[in-house]
Structures are given as C-alpha cells and as structure tokens.
Amino acid sequence: MRARRLARTDGLCEHCLDRDIVRLATKVDHIKPLALDGEDVDSNTRNLCDECHAEVTAEQFNHAAPIKARGVGRDGRPTSPDHPWNRG
After folding, report:
1. Tens of pLDDT, residues 61-76
2. Is the pLDDT of residue 79 over 90?
3. What is the four-CA torsion angle of 83, 13, 42, 63, rounded to 10 degrees?
4. Residue 3 Cα distances to 16, 17, 47, 59, 77, angstroms
C-alpha cells in the first residue's frame, strides 16, 4: 500500500513540488490523521519529505513548529538562530 501511494508522485514530496523543489518523499502522510478519525484510503494521503511531514504534523496536532536544527556549538549551545536560546 505504501509503495503504491508513493508511486503516485514518483516518490517525490508533494509540498516541495508545489514550491518547485524536488525532494524525495519519505513519509506517506494522512491528510486527516487517523488519530482524528481520518480514513486509511489513498485519497486521504499525501507524500511528504521528513521536513514537510514534521511541519504539517505539528500544525495538525497544535504543537509548536519544529525548530530547524543546525547543530550545537563547542559550548554546547544550539547554533540555530531559530532556537529559543538564540532569539532576540
């Protein structure tokens, strides 16, 4: 079932394709999550890369948006400017 669903977009992320970016899809995501009474049918799925999947999942379940990690410096502090420690 997963292989068939990924084949619909030649294994590419649908959200990235909408932005003219070519990235491999790694997840078959349910548009309306099964946990929120979504159906496990092809028409309720989309193919997403890890980054897009994390973003839509956070949005669907009202979680904070994922921080795009860029590593940790020698001092042990996160180097990402998006990290709360480095804001403002």
Report:
1. 888 766 666 677 778 7
2. no
3. 10
4. 19, 19, 11, 26, 40
- Residue 53's CB: how many other CB atoms inside 10 A? 20
pLDDT for position 46: 97
Percent helix, strand and coil across the chain, each to the nearest 5: 35, 15, 50
Listed in sequence order, the residues at least 6 apart from 16 whose beta carbon sits closer than 8 Å to its beta carbon are 22, 23, 49, 52
pLDDT at 81 over 80: no
Return d(Cα 48, Cα 53) in angstroms, integer. Answer: 6
